[in-house]
Amino acid sequence: MTLKDIDKNKLSPMMQQYLETKEQYADCIVFYRLGDFYEMFFDDALKVSRDLELTLTGRDCGLSERAPMCGVPYHSAELYIKRLLEFGYRVAICEQMTDPALSKGLVEREVIRIVTPGTVIENEMLDDASNNYLCSICKAEDGTALCFADLSTGEASVYRMGLQHTPDDIISLLARYSPTEIIFDEHFLDMKEVTQFVRIRLKCVSTLRDASCFNPEMQSECVCRQFSVKSLSELGLEPTGAQTSAVCGMFEYIELTQKSPVGRFTSLHLDDSNAYMILDYNALRNLELTKTIRTNEKKGSLLGILDTTHTAMGKRMLKNWIERPLRSPARIMARLDAVECLMKHRLQAIQLSDCLDRVYDIERLMTRIVYKKAMPRDLRALCTTAQELPRLKEILSELSDCPLIHRLNHHISDLQSIADLIDRAIMEDPPAVIKDGGVIREGFDPTLDELRDAMNGGGSLIEQICERERERTGIKNLKISSNKVFGYYIEVTRSYLNKVPADYIRKQTLVNAERFITEELKQAENTVLNAKDKALQLEQDLYTQVRDYLAGALVQVQETASAIAELDVLNCFAQVATENNYCKPDIVLDGTLEIHDGRHPVVEQMMQEEVFVPNDVYLDTQGTRLAIITGPNMSGKSTYMRQTALIVLMAQMGCFVPATSAKISVADRIFTRVGASDDLSAGESTFMVEMKEVAEILRYATKDSLVILDEVGRGTSTFDGISIARAVAEYICGNKNLGCKTMFATHYHELIALESEMQGIKNFSIAVRKGKDGIRFLRKIVSGGTDDSYGIDVAKLAGLPTAVLKRAREILTEMEQQAPEIAVKEHSEQITFGMAQESKIPERLRKTNVDELSDKECRELLEELTALLS
Asked: Do 108 and 165 lie in a common domain?
């Protein structure tokens, strides 16, 4: 039975309440609180029981047929919510707002929060090592803006793409942040390339929001509440525009899902794209910066090699630094100097590591405190961290000669008052939750101590009354006892009855004594009887007060967390550099890239039986702008180019590099055209994907870019491939406005001739030793090109049968003798298959002088050549 099948008017009151909630949150799975369970009914129950493999039961709902129902225990709900988010659902948490035991009618319920992939704050649902970004995209008259926020850490940034920017710029930004959820208005749907990237590559949840959600006139107050400011101008935002609209859309959604006007965010970072190297999706993927292409795992990536951090905050910052290398030489050198300082002072570095091991994820912990989700153990974790800070600051003070470390030490607050409060208030080893009490320390609150004493029989309270009454009445043998009939009473023997005060109320007469009660004793009895409930309520109130007080320290803790994370990463760099024998790179401004004995940081660590062969690199903006690298497959061309890109990237992160020495000119972008893969989902062949990637490189590369090109043109016929490869090489080297440093690996030996024809091109090859048993790759880069691909020798290494190898050599000999005839035949066959356009490419190139073309004309030529092949 589903919702569309029922008569709503016949439902029971509780089910009508559920249905009203479900209609309001139709796009969510509603977790409806019933006692100790969150229950789901009707359509939600059918979906969740199927996807989570829960038992589907039923519940009376006022109809002849029972409502489908499934449920999860409330104390383990996070586990199930996490799984539902992975399926792409949103979850609305509908809580009981009144105590069922005290409610005469229907228990009041309301949705207190909507959990979505981009608004998660619970540790159990998050990856410690990665940020969890929510993205808001808005298109307006002045361009397109993207706002990214991590609710779990309080980080928020906004970027504006002007009208001159293309969808590729938006895609690059999305690739860098890799959000788990995107919210957008209807104009976003017009950006087909971007929506395709989100759907196919990011595979994140996308939510269409009404245009009013992005309207600054309607949502500016919401933004101000979240940042605790009075106006948008305090955040550096204009009254209108794409940037402001994207921010408004973001924080309207956060306030909607959190059901709270309380702000976790302390600052908004405005467009700072020029401060960082740009890495597009291809570069992030091909260089395997944070995960490998094959396994999609951290192991085997640059992150996997570098990560020796000790804190969750440091792990997240390291990942961000890898994906966002710096472009400011001053900032890069500041980091490098700090790493060098930590390498020179290993004792302090080891002490720092030991100290960081006891630092918790206070960045995310503060989010839970601000949103009133923090558990007692979260507070103790904050206390433990705060208690470690004096020692941490003392260690850093010994390294104060380093400006960056000195500055970071200054940004670490003492937080001693926080530590003292938590230590006084919260048990050292508290229970996981507050609901059953046992969280507040004895001695923190006298009233709570009295109630706890009363819970244990009221001994202390009753004894105090007894002592006071003996002193007041002079009755030395006065005693207070209790029974089930009368409760607590005062017993006086007959010999002292004349001293009984007038305010004593007689309750029972015995042979040798009489029993009385007083108003004070009656109140004490009520205190004892109600002590448990009162103690629990008071304990919860005290806990709330402590938690709310700690929320006021948000800015201090946020600043401290950021400084600790940066120290953790710098210390990590120092450790890796020491263990792996890295060198400090020189950051230069003359456009030179010079590396001596460079090594691939990942491959050298993964090799177990062989020793990695280091290689030199030299590129500049004049005589060696483009290196053409030839050599057989498996010889190490791709590794050599990738290691060069990684060394540049590591240097701009502020990390030492795997080489004996290195001079690095700051790169604004790293482009990679490597590998081969069909984009079947977009209906594009390997060759079309390759050409699009090359076109993007030629469109956006500058004189400060580093370009890695691996086997351009191999996806089409040999002669057309050679033509395109040569045209690309000529364009890169001959276009003075481009002049980017380029490494071009190719099988087309015809390109070797370019060295003698154009200034700025140098030939290099992989050294190969050929003997009786075949070839041996020496993995060494040497000057000069090679016109032998050793393809059959490589096939022999791969284990092809001897008969196949023999026949291959025979065919090769025949083809080399008949090369001109084969060329004619190849072109005639293409025409036979309806591809006559391809034969026009060499002719078109012969008639063109690339040196005389403008930038625009060169791009148009490449697009024309690509069109001839499509």
From this structure: no
- Residue 476, helix vs strand vs coil: coil
pLDDT digits (tens, 9 = 90+) for 726-767: 888 888 888 777 889 999 998 888 888 898 888 889 999 888
* Residue 736: both structure tokens together: 């003075």
- As a whole number of Å, the CA-based R_g of the chain is 36
DSSP reduced 3-state for 472: helix
Strands 626-630 and 761-771: parallel
Contact 138, 214 (CB under 8 A): yes
631 shares its domain with 777: yes
Q: Helix 718-734 crosses helix 819-832 at what angle (to 10 degrees)? A: 100
List the 143-150 sheet strands across, edge first.
205-208, 181-184, 134-140, 143-150, 155-161, 269-270
- Which of 73, 94, 115 is where one domain is finished? 115
* pLDDT tens-digit readout, 781-815: 888 877 666 666 666 766 778 777 677 777 767 76
Question: Do both 92 and 207 map to the same domain?
Answer: no
Distance CA 166, CA 147 (A): 17
Structural domain contains residue 107: yes
CA–CA distance, 492 with 488 (Å, rounded to integer): 13
Report the distance separating Cα 453 and Cα 448, nearest Å: 8
Please identify which residue in the block is written with the tokens 């472009």. 327
CB 521 within 8 A of CB 479: no
Range of the domain at 408: 289-311+328-426+543-580
Check if the beta carbon of residue 28 is closer than 8 Å to that of residue 36: no
Instruction: Provide the domain count of the chain.
Output: 6
Q: Which whole-number Å values give the CA distances from 299 to 289, 580, 643, in the listed order?
A: 10, 17, 17
Q: Specify the DSSP element, H or E, that contains 420.
A: helix 416-425
For the chain, give the mean pLDDT: 87
- For residue 169, the model assigns a pLDDT of 87
568 or 869, greater pLDDT? 568
Residue-wise pLDDT for 156-177, tens only, equals 999 998 877 788 889 989 999 9
Identify residue 843 by its one-letter amino acid code: E
Backbone angles phi, psi at 598, to 5 degrees: -70, 145
How many whole angstroms separate alpha carbon 261 and alpha carbon 244?
Answer: 19
Question: Residue 257: which region, alpha, beta or left (left: phi > 0; alpha: psi -120 to 50)?
Answer: alpha
**All residues at 6 or more sequence positions from 850 whose CB lies less than 8 Å from its CB, including other chains:** 727, 730, 731, 734, 735, 858, 861
- The residue from 527, 554, 580 where one domain ends is 580
Output the domain CATH number for residue 145: 3.30.420.110
In a domain, 196, yes or no: yes
Task: Write out pLDDT tens, residues 277-302.
Answer: 999 999 999 999 999 988 889 999 99
Residue 856 covered by a domain: yes
82 and 137 in a single domain? The answer is: no
On the CB side of 740, how many CA atoms lie within 13 Å of its CA? Answer: 26
In a domain, 530, yes or no: yes
Judge if 344 and 373 occupy the same domain: yes
Polymer length of the chain: 870
Pairing of strands 706-710, 269-270: unpaired
Strands 29-34 and 91-96: parallel
Same structural domain, 774 and 671? yes
> 676 and 734 share a domain?
yes
**CATH at 305:** 1.10.1420.10
Contacts 24+ apart (CB under 8 A), 172-176: 172/278, 172/279, 172/280, 172/281, 173/146, 173/273, 174/135, 174/146, 174/198, 174/202, 175/201, 175/202, 175/279, 175/280, 175/281, 175/284, 176/279, 176/284, 176/323, 176/324
Reported as half-sphere exposure (CB side, CA atoms, 13 A), residue 232 has a value of 21
Q: How many CB atoms lie within 10 A of CB 456?
A: 11
85, 67 contact by CB (below 8 A):
no
Indicate the SS3 state at residue 263: coil
